[in-house]
Backbone:
């Protein structure tokens, strides 16, 4: 099956940098998108097309994608960044088409 | 402002049926493919189905194929998901989502607030 593997959890102190990875063989050949989901809320797009930010998303959020790993980086982490984060790709060769990562819980210490 | 508002969730017995609705506003609904995505309690996101703007093309995840039917009413800016033969594993929050699509990829923005479906006896 088509799996995008993320670490279950990442802990980070306020003001530091959090890096969330999304692993799959040759994911660098796909475009990766990232969503933030706070408890009881719907997902919100924070990065699309590997590294583009929607309007309204702080510059502290950035993305990269190469080889077998895509990465969401949150700089100068704030308490309000505590949430679950999911990567997502579209793969027309897969019968799943729209695949989400396993999700990462970011905890701000 | 783009808005998606789901409704129709609730408690249903195994084997039962439920019809979810998603009311869209703030954009030209009949120009967009639309999707359903679900999230089981405490679990990750799972894509369920999509329907193109003119309903010409429809796809389902294997987990719901043959049991769920997606449809839309462009005159009323509404998206639907008819769910039959429901199982306990269909218990989830169901989101409708608007895609943004290029030649090489698709992402979802925005999402509705979701509607909870509980399948239990």
Residues:
């Amino acid at each position: 099956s088509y799996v995008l593997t993320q670490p279950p959890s990442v802990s980070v102190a306020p003001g530091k940098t959090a890096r969330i990875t999304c692993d799959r063989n040759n994911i660098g050949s796909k475009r990766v998108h990232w969503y933030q989901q706070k408890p009881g809320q719907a997902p919100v797009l924070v990065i699309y097309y590997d590294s583009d930010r929607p309007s309204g998303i702080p510059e502290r959020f950035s993305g990269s994608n190469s080889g077998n790993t895509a990465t969401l980086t949150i700089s100068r982490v704030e308490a309000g960044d505590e949430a679950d984060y999911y990567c997502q790709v579209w793969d027309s060769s897969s019968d799943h088409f729209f695949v989400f990562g396993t999700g990462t819980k970011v905890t701000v210490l | 402002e783009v808005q998606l508002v789901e409704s129709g969730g609730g408690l249903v017995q195994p084997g039962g049926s439920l019809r979810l609705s998603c009311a869209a506003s703030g954009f030209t609904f009949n120009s967009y493919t639309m999707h359903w995505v679900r999230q089981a309690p405490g679990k990750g996101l799972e894509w369920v189905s999509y329907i193109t703007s003119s309903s010409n093309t429809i796809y389902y995840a294997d987990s719901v194929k043959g049991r769920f039917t997606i449809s839309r009413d462009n005159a009323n800016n509404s998206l639907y998901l008819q769910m039959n033969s429901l199982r306990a594993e269909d218990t989830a929050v169901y989101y409708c989502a608007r895609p943004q699509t290029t030649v090489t990829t698709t992402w979802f923005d925005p999402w509705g607030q979701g509607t909870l479906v509980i399948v239990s006896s």
The mean pLDDT of chain A is 95.
